[in-house]
Amino acid sequence: MKKMELSRIIYCVALTYLCFSAANAEIINKNVERVLDLSSQLVKTTYKITAEETTGKPIKEYVFIVTEPNLSYISAKDGLNKKVEVQKIQEGGASNVFSYKLTFSSPSSKQSIVIETVSTKNILPHPSEIKQNDKQLVKFVGKLYLYSKYSTSTQKTNVILSSSNILSHTQVKPFSVSSNKVFFGPYENIGAQSEDELVLHYENQTPFLTVNTLERTIEVSHWGNIAVKEDIQLTHSGAKLKGSFSRYDFQKDGRSGQSAVKSYKTYLPASANGVYYRDTNGNISTSNMNLMRDFVDLDLRPRFPLFGGWKTQYTLGYNVPSYEYLYSSGNKYMLKMHLIDHIHDNMLIDEAVVNIILPEGSTNIELITPYSVKRHQNDLMYTYLDTVGRPVISFSKQNLVENHISDFTLKYSFSKVSLLQEPLLVIGFIYIIFLFTIVFLRLDLSITSHSHKD
Amino acid sequence: MNRSSKIFNSKVAGYSSLITFAVLLIAWIAGFSSRLFAVIRFESIIHEFDPWFNYRATAYMVEHGWYKFLNWFDERAWYPLGRIVGGTVYPGLMITSGSIHYLLHILNIPVHIRDICVFLAPVFSGLTSISTYLLTKELWSPGAGLFAASFIAIVPGYISRSVAGSYDNEGIAIFALQFTYFLWVRSVKTGSVFWSAGAALSYFYMVSAWGGYVFIINLIPLHVFVLLIMGRYSPRLLTSYSTFFILGLLFSMQIPFVGFQPIRTSEHMAAMGVFVLLMAVAVLRHLQSVLSRNEFRKLFIVGGLLAAILVFVAVVVLTVLGVVAPWSGRFYSLWDTGYAKIHIPIIASVSEHQPTTWFSFFFDLHILVCAFPVGLWYCIKQVNDERVFVVLYAISAVYFAGVMVRLMLTLTPVVCMLAGVAFSGLLDVFLQEDASKRVASTTSSLPETEDQEESLEKKSFYDKAGKLKHRTKHDTTHESGISSNLKSIVILAVLMILMMFAVHCTWVTSNAYSSPSIVLAFHNSQDGSRNILDDFREAYYWLSQNTADDARIMSWWDYGYQIAGMANRTTLVDNNTWNNSHIALVGKAMSSTEEKSYEIMTSLDVDYVLVIFGGVIGYSGDDINKFLWMVRIAEGEHPKDIKESDFFTDRGEFRVDAEGAPALLNCLMYKLSYYRFGDLKLDYRGPSGYDRTRNAVIGNKDFDLTYLEEAYTTEHWLVRIYRVKKPFEFNRPSLKAKDRLIPPTNFVSRKNLKRRKGFIRNRPTVIKGKRTLK
């Protein structure tokens, strides 16, 4: 009990010290260049920050604040293009503001940092309902200045939009517009934590597709095959369709239904074979597959064009040879595969559940993921010729984007002898059937003596 | 000598059982694989209409269990009535595939229930050919049985109902039918309770599987009756029929859908009458053996008269009292082909209930239809108890097949059996050479061979026809008359015919019976590539994804099962056409004007209307072509509102162009089919609004919908879905004058005499003047 109290005190002291040291250090953002890419449904932001310590002390840590809701991905690099560790600081208070602590491996008094963030669901259709022939207009509300703990000397913001049709935007001088780009700044000497709004209202006809749920099942077989199956539920999350749908307009008028999603591309690994694309009613016959050099390009067309608010659901599956993903030494095996894979460009996954089915008899399972995931309880699955069941490792993660496509590693041990279990089972079964037949045909079960001839 | 012949016997027995096994296995494999055209060309999918319901019911049973299924009240069908599914289906099909699914899942074989349903009928075709083999073997010879088994495996008449994906009752019922007949014939032959109890059990399976069980319960009594008339009464017959009848009656009443029908409807009365008759005959026989001749005669006359009067009075009284129901409409239509057309348009509207054309006999049976009378002749020539049965089977099946295309299915097995008998008989005569050679090689004298062959016959392994002794004599007298050249020519000709039969079967299966009908394929005439029209599934999937879960969809009854199965939405009417007036109401809504049908639709809580329209691609099975049936069925129930003659032109034509009847051009079905079609130009040269199915430019092009709006139309316009607007959505619905009053409220005016008028303070004074010039 006492020990815990003590540690708590130490923790508090450390925390206050940290705050003080941060405040005293007087880091300023010398120069900030921000690129806001709003050309799709995602907000992709790149910050180039040159931070300086006025007193000349080396900067070890830098606190970066994100104000956008639904932040999906963040990564940082230093001037030498080396990855910088990003750590989320737990905070009570405001729910929309998250602070991240960047720890540099090589401290110096002048640090240049490149931070990339991707956030979702911040570009909203405005108006939220349109007719079939209308254009999809969207609105983005963000911060005009870098929301930072430190004061900023000069900063510029470049906004990239999807089209040159801009209805309105924040007009804080200096700014300039050229085609589909809007430049804000340079703004000088902005104090810490300034909260001016940046609003852009513009045309965005790119697909607003949300993957509501993705269930990815990876089934590993030691006979040389890995089967991947993805159950996907999609919604067009852009402006909802108002009024009636007209097939005539959709077919005859090129401008009609531009924001509708007719097809999209999915990239599969180059070695994917036996690809199927189906739903509960069977095969979806409208798809094309192109084999490229280093990937398989799948042109998926849902059964019907997806208008705003329309949903669809499908299953996509394929096989890959296991030698590309499964490594072994002795009884130790290691599976290295994408945790999620590409579904469509600028995709956004609300929730992904990944199930990995290992061969029967796998033990010592250890999962290493590139980012934190929520582990579910291990399960058992029974399929062809199983006796004790196959272990299923299952985990989920919310709010994923393309940047999350990276490998997980799963280590387990499996004795090679158990490979023979299933063929032996079949052989034994057939043997017993034959034996039974032989015995049965030679048995005379009748109670009368002459029935043998009948 | 004896030992060597014994060795020889066992050797032959080994070979013949190997041949039997191999032929049956090959028949099974051939039958299975020739049913897979649709799976290979398209995919593993449920076909047509009824199979979708069966599949949905099976999936429900697998998911919720057997008792839930029995008590299943389906609120998604026949809105707002609903349907008690457990009590209105023959559950045999669902139980069969459900138990296969259960077994496989116990063995950890994760097969989806859909795949079991798709492949059930092809698998059962193998069982059918085995039971046909057994039955023919009982009737004639194992050789004929093998022929019959091979025929039935590939004959189009049976394939038409059992291709992969055609998940319907008939798929398993034909097996049950043949197997019941086999067990029945066996039991008549042996007179054993074991076999007749087996026949009753198999009959029970048949009752659970198909309404066609009535055929069995009338044919078997007929067989017994004819045997009695022919004076072929025997205690074996008494044992087998009484066992079969009692057990079969009790079993058949266990099926909820059948219930008390076996003792209350006329269709089943024949079986009971024959049972009584058989008992009477048995009693008389017994008395005959006990009493003297004179006493017996007296008793016979008095007792017979009394019994006849009693039975007659009982039947009449029961029928009048309504305990025994008269014949149902579907059975009347079996005797009078014109009956359905006049009285029950809904039965007549189904194409498979039409009388059979001569052409389709050849199409479905090919050479068998020629060989079948020969086999029948053989059976009549060498008649015995069980051959009487097959003769009756043949005659009644021919009649029913002539009445209804659908009943071609019950004819097919007997045709296969008798054609097998015919071919076997033919080859027996012309393949004798081999037999005589073998006789020579065994270096044994003739009587011994005969003896040996007889013993073989007893073992029923040897591939020869029944009355061997007799025929051997017959052959020996004729052997010199048939030259070996003639023999080989005949054999070659027979083989040729059989080969052409196989080719024909494959061709028919591939071209006529292997279309899933929910996916359409057509060949592009320019580059020969195959295009797939997947509009049905496109529309159904749209419904399932983008409408409210409880949305109610109105469509013609043909599509009810598919909507329920693929879109999982509530339908008003479906292919289980049990409620004619409800269907008529939908027909009325379709054939009224938009305004009137809106009233019907709101009273039925319709959210969406689905129509099939083939005018863009030239699909002939669309709703406009079926429209006259809707009108007819609607007229049957609402003769004041709908008249068929209104939909014809003055010259009595049904046409959709400008000369069409105004009632047609303004009815809901027309508007929903052709909404905005008038703008569409299919060709650069042709006029807009040209209907390819009916080859006409539509008559009513420029119209708008007030009460409905287009919700979705598939890529080729094949399926069009409209949303029924809520009353507040269309512009200011007219209110009747008496409804326009504002209802009184508790508001009390505070205006009294002093403050009568309201006024505005500092009211600006408006001075009327001239308009200022700019």
TrEMBL record, chain A:
Membrane topology label: Single-pass type I membrane protein
GO CC annotation: oligosaccharyltransferase complex
Matching Pfam families: Ribophorin_I
Main location: endoplasmic reticulum
Transmembrane segments: 424-443
Signal peptide boundaries: 1-25
Subcellular location: Endoplasmic reticulum membrane
Assembly notes: Component of the oligosaccharyltransferase (OST) complex.
Protein name according to UniProt: Dolichyl-diphosphooligosaccharide--protein glycosyltransferase subunit 1
Organism: Drosophila albomicans
Encoding gene, per UniProt annotation: LOC117565241
UniProtKB/TrEMBL annotation, chain B:
Cofactor(s) this protein requires: Mg(2+); Mn(2+)
Any one of the GO BP annotations: post-translational protein modification
Residues that span the membrane, as ranges: 12-31, 84-104, 116-134, 140-159, 171-187, 207-229, 241-263, 269-287, 299-325, 358-380, 387-405, 411-431, 489-509
Top-tier EC class: transferase
Bilayer topology: Multi-pass membrane protein
EC number from the UniProt entry: 2.4.99.18
Location of this chain's protein in the cell: Endoplasmic reticulum membrane
Biological or metabolic pathway of the protein: Protein modification; protein glycosylation
Catalyzed reactions per annotation: a di-trans,poly-cis-dolichyl diphosphooligosaccharide + L-asparaginyl-[protein] = N(4)-(oligosaccharide-(1->4)-N-acetyl-beta-D-glucosaminyl-(1->4)-N-acetyl-beta-D-glucosaminyl)-L-asparaginyl-[protein] + a di-trans,poly-cis-dolichyl diphosphate + H(+)
Domain STT3/PglB/AglB core: from-to ranges: 553-609
Keywords: Endoplasmic reticulum, Glycoprotein, Glycosyltransferase, Magnesium, Manganese, Membrane, Metal-binding, Transferase, Transmembrane, Transmembrane helix
Domain Oligosaccharyl transferase STT3 N-terminal: 19-419
Any one GO cellular component localisation term in the record: oligosaccharyltransferase complex
Gene Ontology MF: a single term: dolichyl-diphosphooligosaccharide-protein glycotransferase activity
PANTHER family in alphabetical order: DOLICHYL-DIPHOSPHOOLIGOSACCHARIDE--PROTEIN GLYCOSYLTRANSFERASE SUBUNIT, DOLICHYL-DIPHOSPHOOLIGOSACCHARIDE--PROTEIN GLYCOSYLTRANSFERASE SUBUNIT STT3B
Similarity-based family: Belongs to the STT3 family.
This protein's name: dolichyl-diphosphooligosaccharide--protein glycotransferase
